[in-house]
Amino acid sequence: MLTGLIFYVLILLAGTGGELCVSRAMKTIGEVTDFRPRSIARVIVRAMQVPWMWLGLGLMTTGFFSLLGMLSIANVSFVFPATALSYAVGALGGKFFLGERVTPQRWVGVLFVVIGVTLVVLGKR
Amino acid sequence: MPVTEIDPKIADPVKSPAARGGGRSAGLRLKTFVLISMMAAFNPLGNVLLGKGMKEVGATYGWAPSEIARFFFRAFTTGTIWVAIALLLAFFVSYLLVLSWADYTFVQPASAVSSGLTALLAVLVLHEVVTPERWAGVLLICVGVFVVGRTHPQTTEKDAC
């Protein structure tokens, strides 16, 4: 139970924190308009030179291994929807860390997602 | 000729994507939709295969370093895990690309549709039991995704590369 809880918190905080850092890195790269494989590879190489990307990948790796651990003790149809609680954490992070404009409509969408997640968790049999 | 007042909603580029140019806005929406669809396909497939692979691997029997090392050795010598990793890598590249122009607060909830697909695949592939409450939750997640999807994907201007 405690192990599952630790994995869950790590998935939420490290996973979402990592995504926010990766998003910040990609925002410094600029909008990708060329989708040829060579151009995509070049964008990825450029992204790898941004420190935020490495911090993000480190945190996401922590989240990923926590996910592996959680999957070994719980059903996949429980684990993945349950981790969707990170959408609320992500919305706050997007607003305060990335300076994005989170409109009321987006908050409503996130609220639906969070209620949906709660139902998914409560619906565990 | 009367002076027409500019509608503040039109003047505000955040509230009105049309102010950026209809064509560019439509193009932006289209490529955002395509990449999020790719994410929605690769992510649940990768997740379900990862779940299948981890069930093959089994649980850890302790927290000793040797036990953990054995656990990861078993995980990384399982073929299903590698297919799952390839799919998740494809998901991650799509994710990086879409984040180069779209808001994180748009992409993250919009990609939640993959949770529904994961539950569906868990039933079809892993034969897991999904309760009605959980399906209702998945439905609400999809409604949330729909609501977020109706907002403009970009609220901050970025340079093209």
Set down the secondary structure blueprint:
The complex is a heterodimer of chains A (125) and B (161).
Chain A (H helix, E strand, L loop, with lengths): L1 H28 L7 H11 L3 H21 L4 H7 L3 H11 L7 H19 L3
Helix pairs in contact in A: 1-3, 1-5
Chain B lengths: L7 H4 L10 H36 L7 H12 L2 H21 L4 H7 L2 H12 L7 H18 L12
Helix pairs in contact in B: 2-4, 2-6, 6-7
Which structural class fits the helix and strand makeup of chain B?
mainly alpha
Largest beta sheet of chain B, briefly?
A: none
User: What's the total helix number of chain B?
Assistant: 7
Q: What Rg of chain B do the Cα atoms give?
A: 21 Å
Radius of gyration of chain A: 16 Å
Number of strands of chain A: 0
Low-confidence stretches of chain B: 1-20
Task: Report low-confidence residues of chain A grouped into runs of 5 or more.
Answer: none
Q: Output the structural class of chain A.
A: mainly alpha
Strand elements of chain B, count: 0
Along the chain, the helix and strand elements of chain A come as HHHHHH
Overall average pLDDT of chain B: 78
**Could you state the oligomeric state of the chains shown?**
heterodimer
Question: Hey, roughly how much beta strand do the residues of chain B contain?
Answer: under 5%
Question: What does this 3D model show about the protein?
Answer:
The complex is a heterodimer of chains A (125) and B (161). Chain A has helices spanning 2-29, 37-47, 51-71, 76-82, 86-96, 104-122. Chain A is mainly α and 125 residues long. Chain A has one domain. Chain A is globular and about 45 Å long. The mean pLDDT of chain A is 86. Chain B is globular, with a radius of gyration of 21 Å. Chain B is built from 7 helices and no strands. In chain B, helix 6 runs antiparallel to helix 7. The longest helix of chain B has 36 residues, at 22-57. Chain B has helices at residues 8-11, 22-57, 65-76, 79-99, 104-110, 113-124, 132-149. Chain B has one domain. Chain B is an all-alpha fold and 161 residues long. Chains A and B meet through helix 1, helix 2, helix 3, helix 4 and helix 5 of A and helix 2, helix 4, helix 5, helix 6 and helix 7 of B.
